[in-house]
Design a protein that fits this description.
The structure is a homodimer. Chain A is an alpha+beta fold. Chain A contains five helices and five strands, in the order H-H-H-E-E-H-E-E-E-H. In chain A, a hairpin with a 7-residue loop joins strand 1 and strand 2. The first copy, chain A, binds a DNA duplex through helix 3.
DNA sequence: GTTAATGCAAAAGCTTTGCACGCGG
DNA sequence: CCGCGTGCAAAGCTTTTGCATTAAC
């Protein structure tokens, strides 16, 4: 059912996400993609992100208290979590995962997935007091 | 510094949160509090929630992908996390916490706080297939 | 009597959607 | 050519804010 057309807008958005080392918000994606396609609209960014998300090319990253961000599935790889620097506001990918975290669920509950977000100071901001 | 006036709106909102076993959204809080104060406005709910949050009486619970909810500090007690049932959409408090979770942070990073959300099926929904 | 808090409504973000046109296949 | 994808603008939602009034102290 891939009636998807390979438009340059979509390609540009895909490229922006793939090239980013960290999850980007729709606005950031728009700004970066407009360097390639100045007429790109925010609506198209949202529509394309939804499509990328559904097709599995991009993953939505929800940081509590912040607007949604998106990252490339390719760049992100597999299961991982996120670290939010409260100083520079950057969001980092964390490769590992806490084993046995599902044991936290009450008896009789079934855990299907989980989300872990660490807040603190990144390496660049720890030194800065 | 406490120039706060003890209004019945604030008291009602506080009561609603304190009596709830799970985090409530601003809209839910408004609906419940209006049973006591029919003229209560949503704006007041937001303003009061902000005050309660600042004073430490209430805590904001951010579930990724969902609007913010609020719970009572008193009811919630201390450090805990949340379980989101993907069937009935309820949010449960989880008493425990994964020890050593801060070790996930990259070297040189400082962790100040963290957020854990489990997704799955609650006890009531596991049986329902 | 002061003045913080409220209620209404308008405003401000962010995200979605309707519609006509253009481009991809 | 056919119709999906785009761009624009308007609509929807949630949250915030301005202002006059109300009520707490």
């Amino acid at each position: 059912m891939v009636q998807a057309r390979q438009t340059k807008q979509q390609a540009a958005i895909d490229r922006v996400i793939a090239h980013s080392a960290r999850p980007l918000s729709p606005g950031e994606i728009l700004a970066k993609a407009r360097r390639q396609i100045p007429t790109l609209s925010l609506a198209t960014v949202y529509r394309t992100l939804r499509r990328l998300e559904e097709s599995g090319s991009a993953a939505r990253v929800e940081i509590p208290g912040q607007p949604p961000r998106f990252e490339s599935r390719l760049a992100a790889g597999t299961h991982h979590h996120h670290f939010v620097c409260q100083v520079c506001d950057r969001v980092y990918d964390i490769p590992g995962c806490a084993r046995g975290i599902e044991a936290l669920a009450p008896a009789g509950f079934t855990v299907e997935s989980h989300e872990i977000v660490l807040f603190g100071r990144c390496g660049a901001c720890v030194g800065g007091g």
